[in-house]
Amino acid sequence: MTDDLDDLKSMMTAATPTPDPAKRAADLALAQKNFDALQGSRDGLRPTSVTGRKGLWTGVKTMFGAMTSRGGLTATTALVACGFLVATPVGQEMWRGAINDRNTTTFAEELQPVVADAELDVATASRQREAVEYLAEPVPNAPVVMLGDVASGPTAQMATDNFARTLPVDGALIVPEANTETFANADESPLKITSETPVSTFSIDVDTASYAVVRSSIMRGQLPSADAARVEELINYFPYAYPAPEADGAPFRPTVSMMDTPWNADTQLVHIAIQGRMPAIQDRPPLNLVFLVDTSGSMADPTKLPLLKQSFLLMLDQLRPEDEVAIVEYAGSAGEVLAPTKAAERQVIRTALESLGAGGSTNGQGGLEQAYAVAESMTEQGEVSRVLLATDGDFNVGLSDPSALEDFIAAKRDTGTYLSVLGFGRGNLQDSTMQALAQNGNGTAAYIDTLSEAQKVLVDQLTGALFPIASDVKIQVEFDPSQIAEYRLIGYETRALNREDFNNDKVDAGDLGAGHTVTALYEVTPVGSPARLSDPLRYAAEEPAELESNEIGFLKLRYKAPGADTSQLIETPILRDQTAGSEAKFATAIAGFGQILRGSDHVTDWSIGDAIALANAHRSDDAFGYRAEAIRLMQLAATLKGN
pTM score, two decimals? Predict the structure, then answer.
């Protein structure tokens, strides 16, 4: 580090070469173009023509933060690379803009927390601070040194190589490919031979995180990774107009229908739909809500903590005056930011939210333990308590035993305090961690990439997300081997259950919230269809096919009333003449699109254009524009896939 600091000092004090005016103007124009593209990409409102020098100063800080974050430069080399910010005509202009707008002392003060957050050993941290203090010294005429002219050495070369990846080359901006995201998914559900495995069992899923992640990728001009697309979450993102349950019956109503498979003329689809009851808002019990907010250094991005704050503020207006809110933050350690406070005191809650800032490592376990303790202190008889964890999922401290943490969360759900997880930001999104926490906590997992998504999750669907009407909902389908030769469940790979789990009330499953809908699709191959992929067994004792029979299978569902230990059973036959309507066909279009994103072998003769046509024909009621948005996303995805 000493050699690197000397390199930095010599570079900063060297004589300034005479720049070529034409080259300087061209470099500055290109820098502004690239800066506009990056800073204006979210809302189109932050070009350099608007932000001026302050925009350039923001760019300096943003670039430094990116270099010191996970996936960027190591903290040891980051300050050397920051020195290289003045090592090009482009960087020179940004540096001088920063000095004109802010004095260099302020520059050092604002960089200091970034350096302090780098988790360095004491000796290295001391050298980092020395470098920052040096940067605070007046630099009236910062030099322009081209990257090829800087001092050599392993650390300097590493900084050069990494920083060069962000520089314009031939008019195109090269973005570092740092990405540590992980997604919870599994291999596509296999085809089952009915005579060998006639029964299929799985847990319902009402999470929507995958759809929002897919949308985020497409809107950034990238096709999502195959693992990011969980088909059941894409399907269940949308509200559907399914038949409502009887007023005095079960809390939800299942319906079954059939249709021809659009991507295979020789198979059929079985469409299973569940519609939950929506109780009157005045009938819901008092709510105790603990906001558990990740304030670690990785949350500093505008799409993370700032968006999180705006999202929670939207939610406040949906709470009743008697509801209570508490706020717990966690970074290197956990702490209570707001003691339990009545929702009527909105300004107090708002002030506490706005006080949150990002910095430090991520002690997720400590935060969860404290949040649950606060929730338990708030709970009285007949009330509902929920922990709402908001994070990018980047747990790196206090999580030495993930299974122990999951057991801890599972034990807490048995006390009635459920955990839901909201994901923010991209690049280091740990979707797999978020899914595990939400599933063990009997809550839902959602991903929020825009304020509109926050409106959907935390306003429009708040009651459904926080107030379950049925717990441990399991689905089991038995197909008749004399009617159906093969079948496969589309999606739900991470929700599969063993056959014996269906009747075991100790096995956890998904919860159904107030007003929620659930959709599942099976692709089935009738006996005698040319689409059959397996040969019949020579010695199988099969009953003669009764092709005229109207019943091809049987649907069973188990659920518990919230807080109950014993499940209840619902049964209904699956009949050929139950014809699918527009809602089922729109869901099918989304299912086809999701399978294409996953690279499924079952939709090779079907295109995104086919999915668009089917979705367009069955938009039905689209009051919030979700279906129109999905069609636009499919159009973009088709273009990206073609390119």
Answer: 0.73
